[in-house]
Amino acid sequence: MEPINEVQSVMTPLDRKNVDTDQIISKEFLKRIERTGFGKYLFYHWRINADGTENKDFVLNDERFKGSKILVAQENFGCGSSREHAPWAILDYGFEVVIAPSFADIFHNNCFKNGLLPIRLKVDEIEELLTKGKSKPYALEINLEQQTVTGEDGKAYTFDIDPYYKQMLLNGWDEIALTFQYEEQISEYEKKHA
């Protein structure tokens, strides 16, 4: 995984509640065995019309948000099944951060394990960001080390994160890479108990 600390980008305002993993990446696209290539299917049934054309009314098809690295949504983001493909699709599309008032537990944990930063802010703070982001492109700066989200107008928000997950993201470690940080201690233990 790539380390993550500072992310600066226009935010993409996805003003929807209870976005489930089947909406994030629909079941018919889960046949791949790689972790890559899922981005083109992100929110597919919202992005693409039945005739194969782009839904011009969906936020990800709005040119103003192309290249955005920060997705802002409503509560209970990532509910539904436990598919790890959901954070894979979000990352593969280009997002590095998802901000919402709440996340489904399994999705939340899957984000950290795959290098996607999920940030919880208060409902009123999310409403404020969505209002700003829908009226015109609104840039945010995320600083994981300082645990802050700062808007282009200087408005700052703070967030909490488990120190374990914070270290993993800052260093770009997955659980296997984290285990290797203790390789010397593991070798010593194995020698003593051989």
Can you describe what's shown?
There is one protein chain. The protein is an alpha/beta fold and 194 residues long. It has one domain (6-192): Aconitase, domain 4 (Alpha-Beta Barrel). The chain has 8 helices and 7 strands; from the N terminus they run βααβαβαβαβββααα. It has a 7-stranded mixed β-sheet with strand order 4-3-2-1-5-6-7. It starts with 5 loop residues before the first strand and ends with a helix. The model has no long low-confidence stretch (mean pLDDT 92).
Which sequence of strands runs across the widest sheet?
Answer: 4-3-2-1-5-6-7
Query: What is the annotated CATH architecture?
Result: Alpha-Beta Barrel
Task: Please work out how many helical segments DSSP would assign.
Answer: 8
Total domains: 1
CATH topology: Aconitase, domain 4
Report the major sheet: 7 strands, mixed
N- and C-termini, Cα separation: 33 Å
Structural class: alpha/beta
Q: Count the E strands.
A: 7
Helix content: 25-40%
Shape: globular
Work out the strand percent.
15-25%
Mean pLDDT: 92
Radius of gyration: 18 Å
**Which spans have pLDDT < 50 for at least 5 consecutive residues?**
none
The CATH H-level superfamily is Aconitase, domain 4
